[in-house]
Design brief:
Elements (H helix, E strand, L loop, with lengths): L3 H6 L15 H4 L4 E5 L4 H5 L9 H15 L3 E6 L8 E3 L2 E5 L13 H15 L3 E5 L4 H12 L2 E5 L16 H13 L2 E4 L2 H11 L4 E2 L19 E5 L8 H10 L4 E5 L13 H10 L4 E5 L3 H8 L2 E6 L8 H7 L5 E3 L8 E3 L3 H13 L1 H18 L2 H15 L1
Parallel strand pairs: 1-2, 1-5, 2-4, 5-6, 6-7, 7-8, 9-10, 9-12, 10-11, 12-13, 13-14
Antiparallel strand pairs: 3-4
Length: about 400
């Protein structure tokens, strides 16, 4: 059974909205219709284990979409065509498919079916507010659509690189131009942290509103404990996430058990050739490492219920969903990235990282204090009730 603390952190029930979000029946009818423009989100939302797409931005949008739907908002979502019926109703969310990602003739498909179909689908949804997350050409398309038809638009940053000129994870100059134009034209910008807020001001001359990322633990999620012995790494395998450093740490601590979870990135052009295969082959040579490859989100959640510590090795992040999955269970984190959370232990190199991991695993009192601290931090900043209240205020401003 989940602990009482975890139950308190879950999403409020439909009849028990968070403070600041509770409305009368009349007020509930005035809540805006929110549409998430989330091309890769269908595999996450549908929990389809056969489609190997589990991106952080998609996970976050699905969490928010379910949270809004459970609290009286009309919620829609636009996703790529993965073969699903359209529209589909799932967890109170009406999902419209746009087009297959590989549809059309290269170069020409930028206009059709991509722009033409997305524009047509945006009109078919006819929402009040369109929400798009993560740097992409769709930021510009959504902003222009909303200007054209009198709708409201929100862009939400998903990485600390999203607001830095020439650092965005966008391949084509055309798409970068559309993204930056969109940032200049959307009605509101949401940042995950103070770094993104300052970066948005400095590079784009726009203010942003900080709304932390949110997480709702599964009903059967259990608190981490000293009885567990696994050290976990979870993420899509990108070279900028540097999972090889996790293997370096495991190699230095042969008496500890390590588990690495992740499949190759979407769009192999962003991944160094052979990196995933080399990583998998090296993990197989380490007797204290279990390399699972890609796992559906539900299976990943079960691994969090078996681990005692999470390690993150990225060059940069925003607010990793894996931190929220760990903190909600009282699991400490050791990371190369400073996300501005005092409960995250930061290290600079492999030797320091191995020392931090070993200290937390061997010192029971230190681990217990860290566990309590990260759980309290999660409840103050990333719980469903806190994030829902902040978005309710943002929607009121847009209205």
């Amino acid at each position: 059974m989940p602990s009482a603390t975890l139950r308190e952190a879950r999403a409020p029930a439909q009849g028990d909205c968070a403070p600041g979000a509770r409305d009368s029946a009349a007020g509930a009818r005035t809540k805006p219709h929110i549409c998430f423009v989330a091309p890769y989100a269908w595999p996450v939302l549908s929990r389809d284990p056969n489609i190997q797409v589990v991106g952080g931005a998609e996970v976050q949008q699905c969490i928010l979409a379910r949270l809004f739907a459970a609290n009286g908002y009309r919620v829609s979502m636009i996703s790529f065509d993965y073969g699903q019926p359209s529209p589909s109703l799932l967890d109170g969310i009406t999902v419209y498919k746009a087009f297959r990602e590989d549809a059309g003739i290269p170069v020409l498909r930028f206009v059709h079916p991509r722009l033409t179909t997305m524009w047509r689908t945006l009109r078919a949804v006819d929402a009040d507010v369109y929400y798009q997350r993560s740097s992409a050409m769709w930021t510009g398309v959504v902003a222009q659509f909303c200007r054209r038809y009198g709708k409201r638009s929100i862009y939400a940053g998903a990485s600390d690189r999203d607001f830095q000129i020439c650092e965005e994870q966008i391949l084509h100059a055309r798409d970068k131009w559309l993204y930056r134009r969109g940032l200049a034209r959307v009605d509101r910008i949401v940042a995950q942290n103070a770094f993104q807020l300052e970066s948005c001001r400095r590079h784009h001359g726009r203010d942003a509103q900080i709304i932390p990322s949110c997480y709702v633990p599964p009903e059967d999620a259990a608190r981490s404990s000293l009885e567990r012995d696994r050290v976990l790494w979870v993420g899509t395998i990108h070279d900028y996430k540097r999972p090889h450093l996790f293997l370096d740490i495991a190699e230095r601590l042969p008496g500890r058990r390590f588990v690495m979870i992740g499949g190759p990135s979407i769009g192999g052009e962003r991944l160094k050739a052979g990196y995933f295969e080399e990583l998998r082959a090296r993990a197989a040579t380490l007797p204290n490492v279990e390399f699972t490859g890609f796992l559906p989100l539900a299976a990943v959640e079960r691994w969090f219920d078996q681990a005692r510590l999470l390690v993150l090795t990225s060059v940069y992040e925003g607010m990793p969903n894996v931190f929220l999955q760990a903190w909600a269970r009282g699991m400490p984190t050791v990371s190369t990235v400073d996300v501005g959370a005092p409960v995250n232990t930061v290290f600079q190199d492999v030797g320091q990282g191995a020392a931090r991991v070993e200290t937390l695993l061997s010192d029971s009192a230190l681990w217990t204090q860290a566990s309590d601290d990260c759980l309290a931090h999660f409840e103050r900043n990333h719980s469903a009730s806190e994030v829902l209240a902040r978005y309710a205020r943002l929607f009121d401003e847009l209205a």
